[in-house]
């Protein structure tokens, strides 16, 4: 890739990339429409909603970050039969696998958009965490962005946190 690498910013363009990835994925895969809330920007510790969270690290020179998709089991249980068949009973293992795959698909779409704009993003190692009553608390030293969505009245979130190593003084 020629040209200088552009630094990622948590801004409206990045938020729009996430919104496009999630809305296209949900409509294209599950034939459901989601409602997008107002993007929240901040700094410091934040608690995220949902029992199942897909987590992927995103890496760029001088910067590391995290993209997290947080969903409830009920949301996953309601949409999976749309692709697996109405007679399928969704297990927690199926929901965990689905959130992991959804996280990968959202990240892939966002990564492609950012890399077309010369950001040269690399994928970190993905994982999924789950548990009733758990919350994901990201102890990130940098800035964050939360894009909230509603699916049949249930909240799910895409969270992105970035830490620029050059800010360490």
Separation, N- and C-terminal Cα atoms: 30 Å
Structural class: alpha+beta
The helical percent reads: 25-40%
What proportion strand?
25-35%
Helix segment tally = 4
Question: Count the strands?
Answer: 10
Largest sheet: 8 strands, antiparallel
Low-pLDDT parts are none
Supply the CATH class. Answer: Alpha Beta
Task: Write down the overall mean pLDDT.
Answer: 86
CA-atom Rg in angstroms: 16 Å
CATH fold category name = Chemotaxis protein chec
| H-E string | HEEEEEHHHEEEEE
CATH architecture verdict: 3-Layer(aba) Sandwich
Anisotropy-based shape: globular
Secondary structure: elements and pairs:
Elements: H1 12-30, E1 35-36, E2 40-43, E3 46-48, E4 52-60, E5 63-71, H2 73-79, H3 81-84, H4 92-116, E6 122-123, E7 127-130, E8 136-138, E9 143-151, E10 154-164
Antiparallel strand pairs: 1-9, 2-9, 3-8, 4-5, 4-6, 4-7, 5-10, 9-10
Helix pairs in contact: 1-4
In a few lines, what is going on in this structure?
The protein is 33% helix and 33% strand.
Summary keywords:
single chain; 4 helices; 169 residues; alpha+beta; two-stranded antiparallel sheet; 10 strands; globular; 33% strand; Chemotaxis protein chec
Task: Describe the structure in your own words.
The chain is α+β, with helices and mostly antiparallel strands. It has a single domain, classed as 3-Layer(aba) Sandwich (Chemotaxis protein chec), CATH 3.40.1550.10. It is built from 4 helices and 10 strands, in the order H-E-E-E-E-E-H-H-H-E-E-E-E-E. It has helices at 12-30, 73-79, 81-84, 92-116; strands at 35-36, 40-43, 46-48, 52-60, 63-71, 122-123, 127-130, 136-138, 143-151, 154-164. Strands 1, 2, 4, 5, 6, 7, 9 and 10 form an 8-stranded antiparallel β-sheet that branches. A two-stranded antiparallel ribbon has the order 3-8. A hairpin with a 2-residue loop joins strand 4 and strand 5 (63-71). Helix 1 (12-30) crosses helix 4 (92-116). It is globular and about 50 Å long. The mean pLDDT is 86.
């Amino acid at each position: 890739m020629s040209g200088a690498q552009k630094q990622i910013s948590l801004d409206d363009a990045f938020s729009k990339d996430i919104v496009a990835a999630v809305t296209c994925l949900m409509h294209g895969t599950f034939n459901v429409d989601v409602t997008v809330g107002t993007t929240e920007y901040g700094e410091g510790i934040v608690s995220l909603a949902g029992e199942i969270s897909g987590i992927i690290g995103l890496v760029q020179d001088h910067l590391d970050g995290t993209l997290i998709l947080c969903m409830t089991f009920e949301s996953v249980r309601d949409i999976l039969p749309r692709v697996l068949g109405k007679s399928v009973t969704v297990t927690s293992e199926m929901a965990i696998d689905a959130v992991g795959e959804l996280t990968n698909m959202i990240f892939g779409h966002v990564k492609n958009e950012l890399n077309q704009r010369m950001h040269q993003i690399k994928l970190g190692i993905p994982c999924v965490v789950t548990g009733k009553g758990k919350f994901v608390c990201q102890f990130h030293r940098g800035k964050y962005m939360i894009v909230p969505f509603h699916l049949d009245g249930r909240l799910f979130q895409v969270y992105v946190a970035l830490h620029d190593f050059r800010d360490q003084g």
